[in-house]
Design brief:
The longest helix has 30 residues. It contains nine helices and no strands. The protein has two domains: 59 residues, Homeodomain-like (Arc Repressor Mutant, subunit A), CATH 1.10.10.60; 138 residues, Tetracycline Repressor, domain 2, CATH 1.10.357.10. It is an all-alpha fold.
Length: 208
């Protein structure tokens, strides 16, 4: 049986975690609306419904907070994307079906907190810490793409898996970011379908 003296500690820990979560969610909303440099700690504390002093009990500054929000966001995007890719692999369809599923998975993963994602993407080109994280993200995504290609064996037309993985990654990233950040006069469905068709013809001997 659990001793009574441990219960207050658990209550304090639960309350502390709840406060931290409120600050993180408030920060994600504000960073998404205004960007890192146009938000201050006082605004984040007010949005979270906590005192400024409480904010500093959890985070030394807004830069560290932004990076933690970004890490959480990236992990969630990765979780959604990896899950969809596993589903597509398990489905065992043809090349065209797989690529279209992959393209849709990337698009859907980028639908999570799109305002914050837009701000984070911009910072990757101007903030050193974010640039490092961007490089690591791309390295991990590249390794996964190479591994996926290896699984298709002689069905692939391309022979340089590493170069092909880089090309596919850049193509999908470019189209998805364009659609999410700026939109297009052509429907998203048509854009994603054409992208998938293009990549299928590039990658596979038999494009069905």
């Amino acid at each position: 049986m659990e001793s009574d003296h441990r219960k207050p500690r658990k209550t304090v820990q639960a309350r502390s975690q709840k406060t931290r979560e409120k600050i993180l969610l408030a920060a994600e909303r504000l960073f998404g609306k205004k960007g890192l440099h146009s938000v201050n700690s006082k605004e984040i504390a007010a949005e979270a419904g906590v005192a400024v002093g409480t904010f500093y009990n959890y985070f030394p500054d807004k830069q560290d907070l932004f990076l933690e929000v970004f890490e959480r966001h990236s992990m969630e995007v990765g979780r959604v994307l990896d899950g969809r890719i596993r589903d597509e692999v398990a489905r065992g369809g043809g090349g065209r079906e797989f690529i279209y599923g992959l393209v849709k998975a990337v698009y859907e993963a980028h639908s999570l907190s799109p305002d914050f994602h837009r701000q984070a993407e911009a910072l990757k080109y101007s903030d050193a810490s974010m640039a490092v994280r961007r490089k690591q993200e791309r390295k991990e995504a590249h390794a996964k793409s190479v591994a996926l290609m290896a699984g298709f064996g002689d069905k692939l037309r391309i022979t340089d898996h590493e170069a092909a993985a880089e090309i596919v990654g850049l193509a999908v990233e470019s189209v998805v970011h364009e659609l999410k950040m700026f939109g297009s006069e052509v429907s998203e469905f048509r854009m994603l379908k054409e992208l998938a068709d293009m990549l299928t013809r590039y990658l596979f001997r038999d494009d069905t």
